[in-house]
Amino acid sequence: MNISLIDWGIILAFFVISMLIGVFTSKKAGKSAKEFFLSGRNMPWWLLGVSMVATTFSADTPNLVTDIVRKDGVSGNWVWWAFLLTGMLTVFVYAKLWRRSEVTTDLEFYELRYGGKPAAFLRAFRALYLGVFFNVVIMATVSLAAIKIGGVMLGLSPVETLLIASVVTVIYSSLGGLKGVLLTDFFQFFIAMAGAIGAAIYVLDMPEIGSLDNLLTHPNVSDKLDFFPDFNNWNLVVPLLIMPLAIQWWATWYPGAEPGGGGYIAQRMLSAKDEKNAIGATLFFNIAHYGMRPWPWIIIALSSLIIFPNVSDMQEAFPHIPVDKLGNDLAYSAMLTFLPTGLIGIVLASLIAAVMSTLSTHLNWGSSYVVNDFYLRFLKPEATDKELVMVGRLSTVLLMVLAAFLALALSNALEAFNILLQIGAGTGLIFILRWFWWRINAYTEIYAMVISFAVAIFFEVINPNIQLIPIPEDMAYLKLLYGVGITTVGWILATLMTKPEKDEVLVSFYRKVRPASFGWKKVLDRFPEEKQEQGQLPMEIGLMLIGSIMVYAVLFAVGFWIYGNTLSAIIATVVAIAGGVIIFRSWKKMR
Question: Where do transmembrane segments lie in this chain (predicted)?
Answer without folding.
Answer: 6-24, 45-66, 78-95, 127-147, 153-174, 186-204, 234-251, 294-311, 331-355, 388-410, 416-437, 446-463, 475-494, 541-563, 569-587
